[in-house]
Amino acid sequence: GQNIDQPTEMTATEGAIVQINCTYQTSGFNGLFWYQQHAGEAPTFLSYNVLDGLEEKGRFSSFLSRSKGYSYLLLKELQMKDSASYLCAVRVNSGGYQKVTFGTGTKLQVIP
Amino acid sequence: GAGVSQTPSNKVTEKGKYVELRCDPISGHTALYWYRQSLGQGPEFLIYFQGTGAADDSGLPNDRFFAVRPEGSVSTLKIQRTERGDSAVYLCASSPVVVGRDYGYTFGSGTRLTVV
Questions:
Q1: Which residues of chain A are within 8 Å of residue B104 when distances are taken between CB atoms?
Q2: What pLDDT digit, counting tens, does each position of B21-41 carry?
Q3: For residue A111, which of A12, A7, A20 has the smallest C-alpha distance?
Q4: What gap in Å lies between CA A3 and CA B27, rounded to an integer?
Q5: Buried-exposed string B28-59: b where 16+ CB fall within 10 A, e elsewhere
Q6: Which residues of A touch B105 (CB under 8 A)?
Q7: Is residue B18 within 8 Å of residue B82, measured between CB atoms?
Q8: pLDDT tens across B38-77, in order?
Q9: Chain B: nearest CA to A79, how far in angstroms?
């Protein structure tokens, strides 16, 4: 199976930068996703990394180190609307197909 | 449709009853996933379809749960003899064969199942 670890909760200040870490242990790794989920809503896709390095998309960036089983999501210029849960998900090759498993999520609270 | 559609959005049922949850994926998406999410938890994998066949059903908790996708499009998750522990939000997601930097899995809004 896959072990995916993320902090349960984080708090950050509006306008600041926050980094949400995710570590995983798995075999057959084939990509890592970050999703944002507001309370009572479905998860929405933020980023995808399959190679080592940093992917930047506006205020959000995601980093992956495959050798360390480590990823982070970086949120810059935080806004109140960024208060949400952030889910790390790992895709693995499973019997010729691909399976995506989610972590429990990090609940981020942005305060004024 | 433009997105993944799930019906009903809410379902309240009595313990022991049978329920069906429907997922209509984005047209042309070959991969379809069912997840279950309890409050404060991440989505828990249930089953994955590639086309019409269940490629991986290892997440189904027991034999009361079953899912089908007979024509490779709409999928139905079926739960027999529901129990109070089945109460959760059931999420469906779909994707094309290839996902990448700008496109991941698209989730529906979910069905909130409450077993009383």
A1: 33, 35, 45, 48
A2: 999 999 988 889 999 999 889
A3: A12
A4: 33
A5: ebebbbbbbbeeeebbbbbbbbbeeebbbbeb
A6: 33, 45, 100
A7: yes
A8: 988 999 999 999 888 888 898 999 999 999 999 989 999 9
A9: 22
